[in-house]
Amino acid sequence: MVFSCVCGNNSLSPEGLVEHLRLHHTSDAVINHYHCRQSPLCAGILFDNLKKFKDHLVRKHSGDVGGAPLGERIVADGDHIEEQVEQEVENEVLVADNQPVYFDTFAKAVYDSGLMFTAKLYNKDTIPRSAVQEIVSFTQDFMSGFASLLKRKVMDTFSQIDDLDEAVVQEIDDLKAMFGILESPFDELDTEAKRINCFLDANAYVKPEKYFIDSRPAPIQRRGVMYREMVPAYGQFVRMRTTLKLFLEMPDVFDKIMENVANLAAENEVISNFVQGELWAQISAPFQAEGKIVLPLFLFTDDYESNNGLGSHAGDDKVSAVYYKIPCIPKEFLSVLRCIFVAALFYANDRKAYGNKKVLEPLLQELEFLEREGILLHLIDRTVRVYFALGLILGDNLGLNAILGFVECFVANHFCRVCRIHRDELRFHLEDSNNLLRNEVNYNGDVGLANSNLTGIKEACIFNNLNSFHVTKNQCGDLLHEFEEGVCGYALPLILNWLINIRQYLTHEAFIERVSAFQYGPHESGNKPSTSKLGPERFTSAKFNLSGSESLCLTRYLGEMIGHLIPSEEPVWEYYLSLRDLADILYSPFFVPGAEILLRNKVREHNEMFVATFNEHLRPVHHFLLHYWRHIRSTGPLIHTSTNRYESKNREGKIVAYSTESRVNIIVTIMIKAQLKTAFQLLSKNIFDLKFVGGARSNSPARILPHFQTFSQTLNIEGNDVVSCLKFVEYAGTTYGIDSIVVYDVTENVPRFGKIVSIFVYNNSQLNFVLLDFDVLGFNNHFYAFAVEENANILCRHPAQLADHQPLWLRYGARDGAKFISTRHAF
Question: What is the dihedral of CA 456, 389, 255, 243, to 10 degrees?
Answer without folding.
Answer: -90
